[in-house]
């Protein structure tokens, strides 16, 4: 970003089918098959692109059981649905979650590079390590690596993937028909990675794409996760419940990044937000009641089970103090379980109270388009966010956001009026990753 | 296929970018970046769909080195490009190669199931085991499993994938909003596979698609490969050079399939063909010369290297008898190397002669649209083929085939005038795979 250009917020949209929590599918306007409906995804994607969103985001998980929420039970695989959308959109970024725990770096490097070519430079990879206790059983493994180990694996994994993405220098493909030279072999490189967890020779069998390398997303929340994000991520996705939480996270992560020698504006930090918009305050409140009427106690208990290693909470007295399950969260979703425990302690909640709160969190974004735009602006201008990743809480909310909130953000100079560049990386204001071998040659 | 419907040939088209052999990229009309050009793939795909082709086919390989052909060096990954094309086509099948050697069955089951949903029932998986000697080095492995072992792994792998595809019975997704029942849990099944090579619990986190399961393709050529294809494949792709070779293969494979208890019309056997079409015989001959002028001795030597475990053939006397390299082919591409050795012995060829023949094989399909249609009809009617998979030899050949050969096949009642069904499986005349758990319940 040059000094003269104003700081603009970035917007992503989370694509999901039947909803984002346990009971969203029960809304009268939901198609219960939306999670595997390409027409639905296409409609949402095009709507987001009409609203000039910087990117679409497809989350993921790898195992289900009898306690899983409907939005996990049945869903598109991210790489495939993003590739399908790549051919049907022109400017919007395409970000997908893919775990390093149960995949091969060569395959992952290749699929994202291929998506990057198909989309002409619009791919992003949200790097995650798997934490759901029973995922290992789908991959011929007995158990996950322990929490700390997972980030060491992830770090080496990204080294390999980014190394493979540099296999081809930008001008390696020559295509000299008369001379019979297809590729300049001095600009096509083996990686010859020999690490602790991976040994990968390369080169990758696909050239560099328009943006050089796909953009790296990460959602570090635990201590080791934050360090990882601060070192490696270009964009960080997070889930604060309040502005104060957002500011704490923002400050902490930028501090860590600076210690690792990164530029002040990196990584971009984008909290997830779940607005409930109405054209009037009354309408917004009515919509929030509509939303919370869908949430059930079961959903809250399901959410708890997910954070605490699939522990069954249905056997406890709902109105007694929250049970002692701290140890269960430690090697599962560490950050989510810690946050829940903090909330329980701070507000002295019973099991029923925390379950209800988790089922339908209200958040700061219930209101008119103007109120929602104000809150977004406030978070953005008070060091809480570099932008936002939007969840659609109710059918029709994305359209309301695109029609009514986006123009306000544009009028206030906070958001671009149109895509300024053709690649995702450029639209985010991220630097072009100069090929390591080209850099060596120049040095 | 009911008794009253006429037997119709099936047509597939191999999508590739810069060509199918070493020197195709040097043709003046080739875009040297076609292999990663989505507009080019989209154009080819739509042209094939206009010609009512049953399917598109994307081949694959997983490692490159300094000897690799341009069409291997730089290419789309199959799942991503097929997903992108899924959103831009409506009826044509989408078949991709994916190796069982360096992937996880859960991921593969999921990606093909997802592609099957995106395309509304048009996915096919070409199951291969990897044989290029240096692929293991891209996947943190020292070496491939040996040839025979690879098919035992592949067989168990398909068991797992097809088992996961049955996780959801057809009517498992209930979506009863009033009753709060999203899924009928009695119709959502764990696989609990505990095998020699894989342990996979399931269920898969995506429901059954419109065609039940993606179609299984295979290209068994060696003894164990043929047995594997005869047992497991629904469609077999093969590469005979002559009608006699095609008939031998056809008879052998159908015999094997019968012994394994399969129906007489299964699997479908589709030889690859590489027509060179001209509107007159002279034009066809001129085009063939145009094609063979691109082929170089280096290409033939490269082809040999690939079949014989990356052996370097450039150090031999080109005009001496073919060197003794039989052992090198055995654990590499066994079937290709054996065929080359047979050809060398039968025609008593020098290294130069076999290399030239491999660089530009002429085949039986050089001629006018009528001549090409005659030959296709002859192969189809004399038990050499159930249909064909078409390679485009020169730019413009697919269009000639669609405009001039397809109508002849249609006029003769050999090929459908339009897609009769919405799913790939139905268009191929293959049975719907009844869910195993539903079948148990009914029994």
Please give a structural write-up.
Two copies of one chain form a homodimer. Chain A has 443 residues and is of the alpha/beta class. Chain A folds into two domains: 10-280 and 362-442, Luciferase-like domain (TIM Barrel); 296-359, no CATH class. Chain A has helices at 38-50, 70-73, 78-86, 105-118, 147-165, 223-232, 243-259, 281-294, 297-307, 326-330, 334-347, 351-359, 369-381, 397-411, 424-427, 436-442, and strands at residues 10-14, 55-58, 93-99, 123-128, 173-176, 181-183, 193-194, 199-200, 215-218, 235-238, 268-273, 276-277, 366-367, 387-390. An eight-stranded parallel barrel of chain A has the order 1-2-3-4-9-10-11-14, surrounded by five helices. In chain A, strand 9 (215-218), helix 6 (223-232) and strand 10 (235-238) form a beta-alpha-beta unit. In chain A, helix 6 packs across helix 7 and helix 9 packs across helix 12 (351-359). The two termini of chain A are 24 Å apart. The model of chain A has no long low-confidence stretch (mean pLDDT 92). The interface between A and B is large, with 71 and 74 residues. Chains A, B: GO terms for molecular function: monooxygenase activity; oxidoreductase activity, acting on paired donors, with incorporation or reduction of molecular oxygen. Chains A, B: Residues 34-385 form the Luciferase-like domain. Chains A, B: This is Monooxygenase. Chains A, B: Keywords: Flavoprotein, FMN, Monooxygenase, Oxidoreductase.
């Amino acid at each position: 970003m040059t000094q003269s250009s104003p700081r603009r917020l970035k917007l992503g949209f989370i694509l999901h089918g039947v909803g984002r929590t346990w009971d969203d599918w029960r809304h009268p306007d939901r198609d219960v098959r939306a999670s595997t409906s390409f027409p639905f995804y296409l409609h949402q994607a095009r709507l987001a692109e009409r609203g000039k969103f910087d990117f679409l985001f497809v989350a993921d998980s790898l195992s289900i059981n009898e306690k899983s929420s409907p939005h996990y039970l049945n869903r598109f695989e991210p790489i495939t649905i993003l590739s399908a959308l790549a051919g049907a959109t022109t400017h919007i970024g395409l970000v997908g979650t893919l775990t390093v725990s149960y995949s091969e770096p060569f395959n992952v490097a290749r699929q994202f590079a291929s998506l990057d070519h198909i989309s002409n430079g619009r791919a992003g990879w949200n790097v995650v390590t798997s934490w759901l206790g029973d995922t290992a059983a789908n991959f011929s493994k007995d158990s996950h690596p322990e929490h700390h180990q997972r980030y060491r694996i992830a770090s080496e994994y990204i080294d390999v993937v980014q190394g493979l993405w540099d296999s081809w220098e930008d001008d390696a493909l020559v295509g000299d028909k008369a001379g019979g030279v297809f590729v300049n072999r001095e600009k096509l490189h083996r990686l010859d990675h020999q690490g602790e967890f991976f040994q990968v020779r390369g080169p990758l069998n696909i050239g560099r794409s328009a943006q050089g390398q796909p953009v790296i997303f990460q959602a570090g929340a635990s201590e080791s996760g934050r360090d990882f994000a601060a070192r490696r991520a270009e964009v960080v996705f997070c889930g604060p419940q309040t502005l104060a939480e957002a500011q704490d996270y923002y400050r902490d992560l930028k501090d860590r990044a600076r210690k690792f020698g990164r530029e002040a504006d990196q990584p971009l930090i984008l909290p997830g937000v779940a607005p409930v918009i109405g054209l009037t305050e009354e309408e917004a409140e009515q919509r929030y009641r509509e939303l919370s009427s869908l949430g059930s106690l079961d959903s809250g208990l399901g959410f708890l089970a997910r954070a605490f290693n699939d522990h069954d909470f249905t056997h406890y007295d709902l109105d007694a103090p929250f049970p002692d399950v701290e140890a269960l969260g430690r090697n599962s979703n560490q950050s989510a379980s810690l946050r829940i425990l903090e909330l329980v302690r701070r507000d002295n909640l019973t099991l029923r109270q925390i379950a209800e709160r988790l089922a339908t969190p209200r958040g700061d974004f219930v209101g008119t388009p103007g109120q929602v735009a104000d809150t977004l602006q406030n978070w953005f201008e008070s060091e809480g966010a570099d932008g936002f990743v939007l969840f659609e809480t109710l059918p029709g909310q994305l359209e309301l956001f695109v029609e009514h909130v986006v123009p306000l953000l544009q009028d206030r100079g906070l958001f671009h009026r149109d895509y300024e560049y053709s690649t995702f990386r450029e639209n985010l204001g991220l630097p072009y990753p100069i090929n390591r071998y080209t850099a060596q040659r120049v040095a």
